[in-house]
Specification:
It is a single chain. The protein is of the alpha+beta class. The chain has a domain at 1-60. Helix content is 41%, strand content 15%. It is elongated, with a radius of gyration of 30 Å. The termini are far apart. Mean pLDDT is 74; it is low at 1-9, 37-45 and 402-409.
Length: 409
């Protein structure tokens, strides 16, 4: 409970944020909290141990009541907070990033932004060596070692490491989602989640990997990606020993052992290993394509498809064959190409045993057995099992050579 603040030599009581010069004064103040709560707020009947707690409550207000600022949609628990927030719209953002032009009110905001862009993490934990962009991030992390959870919900008693976690919990308890995106109408529990969501529409990827040219919309995604260069795989499966870059990847992998598929589609009953897989699947019903290319009007159902498409504009080919140097814009294309070197043919015909390096080759081959002729000539009606055969046939029409009419079977 006692938290000495190094730079001012004060003792802070975390429940009401009151500070004392002497630890005995802090202990005396703690007794007030344990003995009784004489201060009451008449509007909601809340009682508080000391005058400071009452004062703090009046400033922060009721977390379940939200007042929205109509200019940016940000919500606050106190109307007075809106007045304070309004000044941020009026004030000049004097500190500007020379890379992307983004402006900040304080130099600390610019410093934090620059570090998140470059991946610099100067604040290191002396327990485990983990590093953070800001001192606040380090302070919050240290509580995972000490087990300290100073922020407690006054309704259910659940405690949290940070005030933002408590705030998120309070909103989820009420079921309120006060942050709506004006482009697609989707609603969110917190402003930070809304901000992250907005990047899916703009395709904004401000976090760049220094080792390759890959960009990410979130710093956490960049961090996970960077481990692919260092081959650092911290999360190991206790069943098969396979290691993963992130804990979420390990969790998903473990379901392949248990056969657990907890995410079920309410349309068709199909079940999935992860929520993201279910989300992707659901778009086949809704037709939702939330990822827009900012260079053309093409839209995509998955962010990975958008990124692959954007390379057609830039001509970027990130995936290079280490045997012949040939490069590709997509990882799947490189995987297919590598089979030409290894001679690997994974796709086998169940009727004749013939194997193919690509699934498209097997599909093409199977039409021999089914007799399917999907490609029909719009000049004479003759049908073919492959697009290439139809194209070859059409040249006869352009050269004015007659062809025998044969309808599709």
């Amino acid at each position: 409970m006692i938290d000495p603040i190094q730079d001012r030599k004060l003792f802070e009581y975390t429940q009401c944020v009151k500070t004392f010069l002497c630890c005995r004064h802090l202990q005396r103040h703690e007794n007030i909290h344990t003995e009784g709560k004489p201060y009451e707020v008449l509007q909601n009947g809340g009682v508080f141990a000391c005058h400071s707690c009452l004062k703090l409550h009046k400033i922060t207000g009721d977390p379940e009541t939200t007042h929205e600022y109509n200019q940016c949609g940000k919500a606050f628990s106190q109307h007075i907070s809106i007045i304070s927030h309004e000044t941020t719209h009026v004030r000049d953002k004097a500190y500007e990033c020379n890379q992307c032009g983004k402006g900040f009110f304080h130099v600390s905001g610019l410093q934090y932004h620059n570090r998140s862009r470059t991946g610099e993490e100067p604040h290191e934990c002396n327990h485990c060596g983990k590093a953070f962009v800001s001192h606040r991030g380090l302070k919050r992390h240290k509580r995972t070692h000490t087990g300290e959870k100073p922020y407690e919900c006054n309704h259910c008693g659940k405690a949290y490491i940070s005030h933002s976690d408590l705030k998120r919990h309070r909103i989820t308890r009420t079921g309120k989602k006060p942050y709506a995106h004006n482009h697609c109408g989707k609603v969110f529990v917190t402003h930070s989640v809304l901000r992250r969501h907005k990047k899916t529409h703009t395709g904004e990827t401000p976090h760049s990997c220094k080792q390759c040219v890959k960009n990410f919309s979130q710093l956490s995604h960049l961090k996970v990606h960077q481990r692919t260069h260092t081959a650092e795989k911290l999360h190991e499966c206790n069943h098969c020993g396979k290691a993963f870059v992130s804990h979420s990847d390990l969790k998903r992998h473990k379901r392949t052992h248990t056969g657990e598929k907890p995410y079920e589609c309410n349309h068709c009953g199909k079940a999935f290993l992860s929520h993201s897989d279910l989300k992707r699947h659901k778009r086949t019903y809704t037709g939702e394509r939330p990822y827009n290319c900012n260079q053309c009007d093409k839209t995509f159902s998955q962010n990975s498809h958008l990124q692959a498409h954007q390379r057609t504009h830039t001509g970027e080919k990130l995936y290079e064959c280490n045997q012949c140097g040939k490069a590709y814009s997509q990882a799947s294309s490189l995987t297919y190409h590598k089979r030409a070197h290894t001679g690997q043919k994974l796709h086998e015909c169940s009727q004749c045993g013939k194997a193919f390096s690509h699934t498209s080759g097997l599909k093409y081959h199977k039409r021999i057995y089914t007799g399917k002729k999907l490609y029909e000539c719009n000049h004479c009606g003759k049908a073919y099992s492959h697009a290439g055969c139809l194209q070859y046939h059409k040249r006869r029409h352009t050269r004015d050579q007659p062809c025998e009419r044969k309808l599709m079977r």
